Amino acid sequence: MILFDTHAHYNDARFSEEGDRDVLLRDIFENTPVRAILNAGTNLVTSKESIGLAEKWQGIYAAVGVHPEDCADMTDIDGALSVLSEMLKHPKVRAIGEIGLDFYWQPYDEEHQLRWFRAQMALAEETGFPVIVHDREAHGKTMEVLRAFPKVRGILHSCSCSPETVREAVKLGWFISFSGVITFKNASRILDSVRAVPDDRLLVETDCPYLAPVPYRGKMNHSGYMIETLKAAAAARGTDPDLLSALTTKNACEIYRIPSDSLT
Asked: Does the predicted TM-score (pTM) go above 0.85?
């Protein structure tokens, strides 16, 4: 079995505050099925940190972008896009992200978030990079933006969308990634979405240090726990976890343009 954690935040302070991040990552790569991790940035600083992690660890790749929460106090979109464009030249940067919309945390400026989202989608269209999209309580507006950029492909990460929205996103060429949320007791609706994704568009992730799966819920999440998310997805789809691990790893390598034989 080989696993690819398609979305993580190992630069988060919790990994230093609650232990030794390097010891944890070494243990993950040596003693679990995880062979690759995509570490996503949320602003210019964390994007740079993600690149630093990718330079240090062979199995870590980076995404760079500005998250909808982080853009709240940022006004210089052109300046940020210039910095991101330079970051995209790094050989281990594999996506633009995490970008998108978050209408959960109050207050929020919808138009400001949309400006940043559209600007980074335009950068993806220009450069050909896939994007990682954060969508919280903003499904309708998120889909409007995806439809407005038909040439852009990417991932709806930690998906919480309905099966109907998932099917539309798949028709637009998107991949769908699920986190430990699908192991929670109230996950029946999301499990319907897990079943709605075609084999060639399904991904799994941690979003660590957040969203630890059952039986680790409440603890600091990490890639070693992702096996529980994979098992839950396999059970929902009526398939074998080993088969699903191969499938989701193949899909991750495809969207992130990483040779699959480099993970063995």
From this structure: yes
